[in-house]
Amino acid sequence: MNKQEITLFWFRRDLRFEDNVGLFHALQSKFPVIPLFIFDEAILDSLPKNDARVGFIHDSLSKIHQKLQEMGSSLLVKKGKTQEVWQALLQEFDVKEVFFNKDYEPYAIKRDLTISELLEANKTTHFSFKDQVIFEEKEIVKADGLPYTVYTPYKNKWLEKYNSMAPVQEYDATEKFSNFHKNNFVFPTLEQIGFEESPIKVIPHNLKNVSKYHETRDFPALDSTTHLSPHLRFGTVSIRKLVNWATHKNQVFLSELIWREFFMQILFSFPKVVTNNFKSAYDGIQWRNNEEDFKRWCLGTTGYPMVDAGMRELNETGYMHNRVRMVVASFLCKHLLINWQWGEAYFAEKLLDFELSANVGNWQWAAGTGCDAAPYFRVFNPEIQLKKFDEKGIYIRKWIPEFDLGYGEPMVDHAFARDQAIATYKKGILK
Length: 431
What we know:
This protein is of the alpha/beta class. Helices cover 45% and strands 8% of the residues. The longest helix has 19 residues, at 52-70.
């Protein structure tokens, strides 16, 4: 019996119908399109069974599946090692074409190369598209073709290129939804893929305060941020729609979106930053790496209210305000002299918006070891930061209910820690 000729669209970090470049092109195919998602065991096996991010992915896929059912189609969901899943798919279906959107992280690049080779060996045509960024790895470069390693000139070049083509094209595939393959695949429960519900949930994004973003973004008690970052991470929103909109709303907010792409191209161009300092001269720093100090930092019991409130917020919700992230990260690296890699790994485990490029980039920024980083002698004073950005203590009291009942003493004196950090960095920086 002949198998039906089909096209597969592979959802990954683009969990939406709206303005999805790869999906738009897939639906132009002359073959009916089966949408696919693979729960990759190479990623899942290292996660706790109640990982909130897996729950969010599952919820997002469920909404896609429900929408497809309204059109007489459904989402094909698989779980396993990606290469083995694709080998089975090629046996199960007569796959003529495969479409997917690009991913730029080291693991994803290696995975996609392996799958592309498998498809080519099977004589299956495949296409990949830029979708999660406005400009990808080699589109914003210096005059000599090398990548930027300082943000401001990168941003200027980015804006120059964007303004020459604004607004960026958006892709509406609505008229082609009839090209989805008619089927009724069973959508698995969270338990069937080996996970369980988490009490931590991704918050819907909210853009109502963006016009005042530059005025309110540094004050955690206002809760005026957009909560966009997990949605950008998993592609439940379109970066093109967001940037085209943000250009007319707030330039500081737009700059944050450009920072995201800056760190992405740094990771692509310098993959060593995942495990090594961008600035090799900092490789000689002798970190204290005290495990008991690290535990107190993780639990939010350092005696510095802004640090502790931030860590408790992270542990309870999977979120942490950006201003607080800077204070928390600086404290770990400078006050406690613990390697940024420890903090980066903890954030990777806890953050709902964990994005490898941004996490590594921001941690190295705080530690002073990254590209365009804060200078090593800049040591945030957590108490001054508290007075400037949470003067009435609203944020800290939300997360530290015992604050007014005899809160503990700081685990380390700021003046001592600052002097120790500067001396350690000076001694450790290689000439």
